[in-house]
Amino acid sequence: MWKRYWKLSRDPFDARSSPFVPLEAHQEAVARLIETVETGRKLAILQEKEGMGKSRVLAQLLSEVRTPWRRVARISSPVDGASLFSELAEALGSRVPAGASRGLAWKRLGEALRLCRWQRQQVILAIDDCQNLPDPTDRLDLDRLVHADAHPAARLTVIQVFRLADDEERTVDPWSLSIALPSLLRSECERYLTSKLAASGREEPVFTPRAIHRLHSLSEGVPRGIDRLASLALMAGAMRGLEIITPEVVEAVSVECRHSAFCA
């Protein structure tokens, strides 16, 4: 109902369907990852706090580098080394028995990678939410992926995405590409909102300049926080029969998620 009220074809801020907005930092991150893939570098690491757009950057990268001569295996939140290897092997078309051991799963992944090499395909192994592998042994398994096919003719790139805790420091490996995503500036916040609304069919302004300023301030420039607050504000505005969203509306809906990780 609220989407029809604002003449939107869909929720502009739904992460599952909203478009990639080419903000400078996100575009740079995608470009650096593309360069990693195209030059055949072994490893790239994307690390940032929750809600900064890591998964969206990863999805954009994979959509831009996908070709018939590249195989992409993307998984999310592996719980241990065995599931890490099993899920990647299955994403490459290998069958792994349920409950397979770490050793068997590693063997199946190696076989799948060798088959790709024989077919002259480059392989991209993309692992989202790597922070869910807290055990040191599992982290070693994650590091082992770059050696899963050690043949000189192998073309393998591993992309690791980590969500950092608020108090966690970013680790920098001097031998790998480490990418961060900064918070959005006020001007970027406005462009972010405008682009998402336009992609959903709304060209006219929806938020006043002061409302955009409040959105940026309350979300601290975190894209997921902006999405959540903007969605709630549009719902509230439709219920109140408003023609435009004011800072007071943004302030009111922020109370609903003031203590949520999505709005901080």
Automatic annotation (TrEMBL):
PANTHER family: GENERAL SECRETION PATHWAY PROTEIN A-RELATED, PHOSPHORIBULOKINASE _ URIDINE KINASE FAMILY. This is Type II secretory pathway protein ExeA. SUPFAM superfamilies: P-loop containing nucleoside triphosphate hydrolases. It comes from the Bacteria. The lineage of its organism: Bacteria, Pseudomonadati, Planctomycetota, Planctomycetia, Isosphaerales.
